[in-house]
Design a protein that fits this description.
Order of helices and strands: EEEEEHEEEEEEHHEEEHH
CATH superfamily of the largest domain: ATP-grasp fold, B domain
CATH architecture of the largest domain: 2-Layer Sandwich
Helix content: 25-40%
Bound molecules: guanosine-5'-monophosphate
Largest sheet: 7 strands, antiparallel
CATH topology of the largest domain: D-amino Acid Aminotransferase, Chain A, domain 1
Structural class: alpha+beta
Radius of gyration: 17 Å
Distance between the termini: 24 Å
Shape: globular
């Protein structure tokens, strides 16, 4: 297998079947556009397993994802999509960057309806927020594709919120990335795990996601948080 690309948290390898790729989830953890960087034991195995569990669930509910298989811990076989360089964020509860933009809401306030936002994947520009016109002018997606990404983000939210609530977690917000398959269909790609969701323990309010790292907790605490998230979503201990 040949390495075709490497990001902050995953390495992509080509496969003999060109319709597929292998994704190796790394133990690297980063924040603040990659300026903060550490390694968390078993993070790759944990996030690949959580993503697989949630993507399988989404597939059952009719949301297409790139997941094909998880042949070994931390290694996913996925459909080879042409990725769109956008981060599509869906928010149920005010937290994170939206607090700097939206007056009248404080951390923990519920929004009257879920909010979907688009950001350009570009660390040097600090992932700026984009509206539909920006996305079309940059030729990243057309009007129909933008509507489809929004529909799929909201549908994902609709399924995921009650699913995680049953596991005693509140889904404050999450980020999806999309790609096009060989027929041009918009499909959920990338990952959905403790790096890309804000999850709060319903009973204690404890943070169960990457925010513990962003907030500067010791790495042992970050490791414990990822393990807790794994136990709640996947069950058992990572192998
Ligand atoms: P915020 O815009 O408040 O920073 O993030 C909103 C949601 O999107 C959070 O759940 C956060 O984890 C996720 N998110 C935003 N940017 C990124 C990113 O660059 N990488 C990952 N993995 N998740 C992100």
């Amino acid at each position: 297998m040949e390495k075709v690309a490497e990001g902050k948290t995953k390495i992509i390898y080509s496969m003999p079947d060109l319709e597929k790729v292998t994704l190796k989830f790394k133990d690297d953890i980063t924040a603040f556009d990659g300026k903060k960087h550490d390694l968390i034991k078993d993070k790759g195995v944990i996030n690949a397993a959580i993503t697989t569990k949630l993507f399988r669930y989404l597939e059952k509910e009719g949301v297409s994802t790139h997941l094909v298989d998880l042949p070994q811990p931390g290694v996913m076989v996925a459909r080879n999509l042409k990725m769109i360089p956008l981060e599509v964020v869906c928010r149920n509860i005010a937290a994170g960057h939206i607090l700097e933009r939206l007056p009248g809401f404080k951390k923990g306030d519920s929004f009257p309806k879920p909010i979907v936002e688009f950001f350009l994947k570009n660390d040097s520009l600090h992932d700026p927020i984009l509206n539909d016109d920006h996305i079309q002018v940059l030729a990243l997606a057309n009007k129909r594709e933008i509507a489809e990404m929004k529909r799929l983000a909201l549908k994902t939210n609709e399924f995921l919120k009650p699913y995680l609530l049953k596991k005693e977690m509140i889904l404050a917000d999450f980020k999806l990335e999309f790609g096009r398959d060989s027929k041009g269909k918009i499909i959920v790609g990338d990952e959905l795990d403790c790096d890309s969701m804000r999850l709060w323990d319903i009973k204690t309010g404890e943070i169960l996601d990457k925010d513990v790292y962003r907030q500067g907790a010791p790495l042992e605490k970050v490791t414990e948080t990822y393990l807790k998230c794994y136990r709640k979503i996947v069950g058992g201990e990572p192998k």
